[in-house]
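The records we work with from here on pair a chain with its fold. These numbers are not coordinates but entries in a learned vocabulary of local backbone shapes. To see the layout at work, look at the sequence and tokens printed below.

. . .
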Amino acid sequence: MSQNYVPQQQAYGTTAEHPKAQSVFILGIVGIFVGICSWIAWYQGGQAKKEIAAGAPYAFDGNLKTGYLLGKIFGIIYIVGIALYIVIAIIAVAGAASQG
């Protein structure tokens, strides 16, 4: 009686991380504290996402997705913060002008 040996296949493919994944992740984390880094993470993550959508053999997950989302979220938060700062400055100038 001979047994047939069938090698087990992996349940999921072992796609490698995108070459920019680590730098996007680090920039996304640093972007929490330094605004320009969040913009760079958002941009580089978007470029990598386009490459993957065009057929690059990488997965859009893990460090790449996390860094991209951190960059996007904190980039938007910095936009809102700057807009609020401008509105508060205008109100302060208008208030000072009306008192004098």
Residues 21-99 form one domain. The radius of gyration is 23 Å.
